[in-house]
């Protein structure tokens, strides 16, 4: 069970004594093997502050993969799990640049930090006073609004103002601002488990939408939600980062691009980013497989924009119901699989062909067929030296295997 922080913990951790103690604890390995020894050492040095210190250092280490410059931030376990990755928050903030914005579920401030860089006025609110106190600290850590600490919210106060950010305790379902864009991130856990039911989010998504019927609204959601069932009339944007789908964002009509109802945005920590929408052409050829198989980014697939992506890059589908694409070239920055052979999906003949080709390391991709890649790999028993990739899919009614070189 994760540690439950108090406002007193936040005041201590944000102060000089806490910062010094955190630097000391950060020198420890804090692994499962050293847990008891490390805990006893911290308890001897810092008494009943030990749990808060150890938990904070652990959370900071986890946050490094998600948030930029988070080594001085404070967190709670649940808040870090839901915090928007920095590059995703930055991309959303860029769409709102120049607008006054109210984040009605601001939590520890991961969105606020990016909004404050590009928006003239930002309001953050939450019902959790500990998270508000943490948000105040995290905003101060980033020296937002000016660079001199006198202009910033005190890190030891739960509520406060920077030059362009105000924090307040408020219920997301009770509108408490006017003339602002409202953004929200309902918690996606119900009874300790992730949920894809919009009504079980916290606050419930239908209630949240009903609370702001005439406002410009952006709502971060899990990409697995059934958005069509919501009857959403604006834009649904699915965002991936470094090949992993991170979220969907609902943009109300006033914030959406005219003619766009679905968008895929693909981000990379290396700096590259691109987007595609359903306003683009989706006319593609129907013909035999080309030289390559291309598996589009998950954001493109989740957003239902496979045909638009294919049209943009001169590709076509193996089957109109399957997201795998094929073509004679591979778009820049995309992983392609060069087709060596095409076979019906029969394990005995497939095993013999892999043995003939001296197949060793074997990657198996499957879509549209009921195949467990790990179990199949075990049955195929590849023992050679050359790496290969199997792409197993359905073309028409037949399960088909493409034997490919591994990129």
- Continuous helix count: 14
Number of strands: 18
Could you say which structural class the secondary elements and strand pairing correspond to? alpha/beta
Query: How much helix is in the residues?
Result: 25-40%
CA gyration radius, whole angstroms: 25 Å
Distance between the termini: 42 Å
Sketch the major β-sheet. 9 strands, mixed
Q: For the residues shown, what is the average pLDDT?
A: 91
Which geometry do the CA atoms define?
globular
Strand content: 15-25%
For the largest beta sheet, what order do the strands appear in spatially? Answer: 3-2-1-4-7-9-8-10-11
Low confidence ranges: 145-160
How would you describe this structure to a colleague?
The protein is of the alpha/beta class. It has a nine-stranded mixed beta sheet. The protein has helices spanning 7-14, 16-25, 35-46, 50-63, 77-82, 86-95, 110-118, 129-141, 205-211, 227-230, 298-302, 306-313, 347-356, 373-380, and strands at 101-103, 122-126, 165-169, 181-184, 189-190, 193-194, 217-221, 235-241, 244-251, 262-267, 273-277, 292-294, 316-317, 325-327, 336-344, 359-367, 386-395, 398-405. The radius of gyration is 25 Å and the shape is globular.
Summarize the model shown.
Helices cover 30% and strands 24% of the residues. It has 407 residues and is of the alpha/beta class.
Structural key phrases:
407 residues; alpha/beta; nine-stranded mixed sheet; 30% helix
